[in-house]
Amino acid sequence: MDTLSVSVLGSTGSIGSNTLDVLSRHPNRFRVFALTASIQVDLMLAQCRAFAPRFAVMSNAQAAQALLERVNAEGLAVQVLSGQQALCEVAEHPEVDVVMAAIVGAAGLPPSLAAARAGKRLLLANKEAIVVGGAWFMEAVRQGGGVLLPIDSEHSAVFQSLPEDPASWPDRVSKIILTASGGPFRTRDPLTLSQVTPSEACAHPNWRMGRKISVDSATMMNKALEVIEAHHLFAIQPQHIEVVIHPQSVIHSMVEFHDRSVVAQLGTPDMRVPIAYGLSWPQRMDSGAKGLDFSALSGLTFEAPDPQRFPGLGLAWQALAGPLGTTAVLNAANEVAVAAFLDHGLRFDRIHAVNEQTLAAVLPSAIGGLDDLMALDEAARRAAAGFVKPWLN
Ligand code: NAD
Ligand code: MG
Predict the structure, then answer these.
(1) Does domain 157-267+306-391 have CATH number 3.40.605.10?
(2) Which residue minimizes the CA distance to atom 2 of ligand 1?
(3) Which of 80, 91, 106, 122 has its CA at a distance of 20 to 30 angstroms from the CA of residue 344?
(4) Closest alpha carbon to 95 in 145, 36, 147, 55
(5) How many A from CA of 49 to the centre of ligand 2?
(6) Exposure of 4 by Cβ count < 10 A (0-12 exposed, 13-18 middle, 19+ buried)?
(7) What are the extents of the domains in the chain?
(8) Closest residue (by CA) to atom 41 of ligand 1?
């Protein structure tokens, strides 16, 4: 079997580190071509020592300079690059077979698109890229002729539950049911949500993740982004996507067929499972995850999400019903609001207000392509920043 060459975008993050863990279990099948990060120089240096990539890209120029000095001091063979363009270059490089897109936020869209256009096997964790890029993103994948495999655990579960031939999905599938854990505040008194601190919001009961997605899980905006992601990945109409809270995170999502049969994918909550599946598809390989111990499970429970507690969830369907580009506005607002919250500059329960107000204020018109989308993203960020100010603590 030929060794596959892999670029890991966002290698110092939670998904990036889990990806490297899986790759390290299969040294004869994969080699690391490039690693990328924003500012985490120490961890990147350690990853360069362990995986000897050809390229290490720091999107931040100062961090790249610091990494270069340390790489030279140690005599490592890695070439250090910096900036957006370099991110795209290591994603589309002719010697690369597989790209793990694990940058957080819309910042990951350009390199993910570059990989898609170049026809790579694209493993997409970076859900914001598809929420912003939408139909254009899917078209780039089609034109590039590569494969797009979801890494988000819910979408990997749906993909594993669907028949192999995508052309058969519309005739067979009646509903996609995304499960959600409900996050750390599923049972917290809603009147105390204004007091939530960033560390409380990031303490997820079942998953260890980056800070942005942890806050998104606490507001359930993560699930809203995932509804939009599912709509694009599986070409399914928004009214046929349902969300159910399942606090144990054992069932990762389900597909209902026209005969009302439901197929689900189960497993321990460990992102190495969908990562290994994406890397090995259509085969299977060791992920390092523990197996499910059914006799130790206390029970699997389900409940409907409470719209009062999680008002952000409904914004997915609202944005999908709007003109093209509306989901990019929602994503930009949410990135600004979450960053402000994590910076102690916005109350937790005001994240939704910023998202809602930005959606009402920024109306997309005639989006012709990526440049228009990026301009819309910028406009939405400016508007959202304006809505953050009144609640600065
Ligand atoms: P993280 O914050 O742990 O890591 C993000 C990575 O992106 C880091 O390597 C960071 O250096 C890099 N990065 C951040 N900003 C950047 C920028 N502006 N330009 C270039 N690089 C940048 O995040 P994560 O939890 O690993 O999540 C990554 C993506 O995967 C997100 O889109 C998230 O929604 C998605 N995802 C994560 C999980 C999970 O379990 N962590 C599960 C499903 C989906
Ligand atoms: Mg998910």
Answers:
(1) no
(2) 210
(3) 106
(4) 55
(5) 31
(6) middle
(7) 4-151, 157-267+306-391
(8) 209
Global pTM reads 0.98
Structural domain 4-151, CATH architecture: 3-Layer(aba) Sandwich (3.40)
Name the token pair of 182: 């409900």
CA distances from 157 to 15, 171, 230 (A): 17, 20, 11
Q: Which residues of the chain have pLDDT under 70?
A: 1, 390-393
Residue-wise pLDDT tens digits, 263-312: 999 999 999 999 999 999 999 999 999 999 999 998 999 999 999 999 99
Pocket of ligand 1 (CB under 6 A): 10-16, 37-38, 40, 59, 102-104, 107, 125-128, 152, 207, 209-210, 212-213, 271
Beta strand 262-266 pairing with 251-257: antiparallel
Residue nearest to atom 12 of ligand 1 (CA): 10
